[in-house]
Amino acid sequence: MQPHERRPPAPPRGLRRGRGGPPLLEQIVAAFIAPALAATNNAAGGAVFTRLRATLAAEQNELARTLVAKYFDATSHRFATALARALPHLSQAEVFWRFNFLLGTLYYTMVNPTRIEHLSKGLCDATDVDTVLAQMVPYVAAGFRAPSVPSGASKRVNRKGAR
Questions:
Q1: How many helices and strands (H and E) does the chain possess?
Q2: Which pTM was predicted?
Q3: Helix or strand or coil: residue 142?
Q4: 138: how many CB neighbours lie within 10 A of its CB?
Q5: Contact 38, 129 (CB under 8 A)
Q6: What angle (nearest 5°) sits at the alpha carbon of residue 130, between those of residues 127 and 133?
Q7: How far is CA 78 from CA 38, 53, 56, 123, in A?
Q8: Interatomic CA distance for residues 57 and 68, integer angstroms
C-alpha cells in the first residue's frame, strides 16, 4: 500500500479518563499526530508523502483545497469533536482555532524537520519521532487548555499584542 492510499487514522475510540495513563486530552492529541509523525520515518516513501501532504495543506489554490477537504476533513472533524468533548470550557469556534494551530505546528514540523536541528546546533534530532511526539503533545495540549478567550477580546488586542 502506498502512503497516499492509507486510510486516515481511526477516530479516537477507546480513549478514556482514568488513572495510570495520560490525560484524555493528551491521548486525543497523540492519536492525531502520532501517525503523521511516524510516516516521516517510513522507508517506503512516507517522509516524501508527509512533506507533500503538509505542503499541500499550505497551498492556496482550489485543487489543493479540494484535495485536503476530500482526504482529511472527515478525520479532522472526528478529532475536533473529540477535543470539544474533552474541553467543555471552549466554544466550538475556539476548538477549531486551536485545532488549526495544532495543524500549523504539525505541518511546519513535517515540512522542515531539519530546521530545529540547525537552530539548536544539533541538540534536537527531528528524526527521533518518539522525542518529537513527547515534546509536541504537551505543547499542543497546553494550548488547548488555555483559558477561553472572552468575546470581543480580538478587538482589544493591537498588532503588537498589547491590550
A1: 7, 0
A2: 0.76
A3: helix
A4: 16
A5: yes
A6: 100
A7: 20, 19, 21, 36
A8: 6
pLDDT 10s digits, 100-136: 999 999 988 887 888 999 999 999 998 899 999 999 9
pLDDT in tens, 11-48: 445 555 555 556 899 999 999 999 888 877 666 666 67
By the 8 A CB rule, do 95 and 87 touch?
yes
Contact 39, 3 (CB under 8 A): yes
* Contact assessment for residue 95 and residue 107, using Cβ atoms and an 8 Å cutoff: no
Q: Are 22 and 83 in contact (CB under 8 A)?
A: no
The domains of the chain are located at: 22-147
Position 5, amino acid: E
Residue-wise burial string across 123-135, b where 16 or more C-beta atoms lie within 10 A, e elsewhere: eeebeebeebeee
* CATH entry 1.10.357.10 includes domain 22-147: yes
DSSP secondary structure string for all residues of 84-102: HHH-TTS-HHHHHHHHHHH
Handedness of CA 57, 36, 132, 98 (dihedral sign): positive
Give me 12's grid cell: 479516537
